[in-house]
Amino acid sequence: MPRNLYAHFRLYLLASLLLDVKATFRNFTIDDSDPSWVYGPYGAWNIGNECHGCDAQPEAELVYNQTWHDAAFYAPPNSQTMAFPNEPFTANITFNGTAIYVFCIMLNSATYPIFGDSDMIFHMDGIPVSTYQNTPTENLDTYTYNVPVFAMPSLEYGLHRLMIQNGVPNGTNALILLDYIIFT
Question: Does the keyword field hold Signal (predicted)?
């Protein structure tokens, strides 16, 4: 093969390979027990499957990786006897991607064995972007698993920080049973 033709062939081959490159997106599931999570305030969250004194006890077999994190925010006047009176709890995670979905376990109970009210605020990159509220009206003492409580399917590709806030100062009691997230 003449030298000039060989150079053109290599250039053609390289160009065809470069033009055939496609971006592939993958989903990643991050469990609540992953060390990437930062829970605050320190000591406020319970590792649900290890907390034998916690009132909320979902069936571990139905929970992703059989783990969850539990935090109960008590609003005034209930908060005076608590270790973190009227202070919301947060769960923070940093991820690199274009979408994120948060899944929790919901307790279908108004008061027994504990209130099942949910009051969450979701912050993306330091900005509040969404809320999730749920108020059960009966005491069924059952759980609903894999409940999508937050979705942001179209983020600009890059590094992002999600903060989940459980409870609002001077708001209502709020329980969170955080299970996992999926990000793309």
Answer: yes
3-class SS letters over 13-68: HHHHHHHCCCCCCCCEEEECCCCCCEEECCCCCEEHHHCCCCCCCCCHHHCHHHCC
Radius of gyration of the CA atoms of the chain, in A? 23
Neighbours of 170 (CB within 10 A): 9
Please count the structural domains in the chain. Answer: 1
| Structural domain harbouring 129 | 25-183
CATH at 123: 2.60.120.260
If we measure between CA atoms, which residue out of 37, 39, 133 comes closest to residue 90?
Answer: 39
Yes or no: say if 147 and 166 are a contact pair by the CB < 8 Å rule: no
CA 15 to chain centre: 42
Q: Tokens 């049973």 label which residue?
A: 177
15, pLDDT greater than 60 = no
Is 2 within the bounds of a domain? no
Q: Is 76 exposed, middle or buried (0-12, 13-18, 19+ CB in 10 A)?
A: exposed
87 Ramachandran zone, left/alpha/beta (phi>0; psi -120 to 50): beta
